[in-house]
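Homework help board

Subject: predicted structure for assignment chain

Our instructor gave us this sequence and asked us to write out the predicted structure in token form, then describe one feature. I got the tokens but I'm not sure how to describe them. Can anyone check?
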Amino acid sequence: MLGNKRGIKQNTYVPDYVVFDFETTGINPNRDAIIEISAVKVKKGEIIAVFSSLVNPQMPIPYGATQVNGITNEMVAEEPTIETALQKFLDFIGDDILVGHNIHTFDMKFLWNKTETLFGETVANDYIDTLSMARQRLPQLSHHKLVDISSYYKISTEGAHRALNDCIMNQKCFELLAKEQVKNPPKICPRCGGELTKRRGRFGTFLGCSGYPACRYTENC
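My token output:
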């Protein structure tokens, strides 16, 4: 949903949510474009609806991007522009919690940038980044990419780097990461309800809210 304030990062499991993923022409939300939007709506841990659309970026897709996701200029030539595709995506997600892998530093920045530019408002949905969850719940892994987490849980990685396939993989990983969370429940921020995570500052290790910078609560370990 659109609003005046950006949503806050959360880190605790919810049974109802939307997993989403973008494929883009690059990594800079200010100058690069979204070329694929996919999402799956989940209720009580089960997928109940799917949204997926290629997007015509109205600019050439760089060769390097095509090498990663397989999306070509020919594939998007007759597809809707970002304004149309993004509005349909916003209708699909409603006010649900958003879930995705590495969305805190990537997908959410694209989402905020495009909605603010096109519609004059921002996405107010809170969100959960499974990359953060995986780093906290599976510290024994040397890498925490989505394919690494999927492989750890013996989930097929076929079709990785296409948005809908990544959403389906991510949804399965999120449910399994939640079980890890039940075994070792996190400490919760008393101000906003986000998870407190260990951080290292000038004076040593402390607990800080995962909703930073929106929430700046800290306490001693």
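Reply (TA_rk): Your tokens look well-formed. For the description, you could write something like this. Helices lie at 63-69, 73-76, 82-93, 107-119, 130-137, 146-152, 163-183. That's the kind of observation they're looking for.
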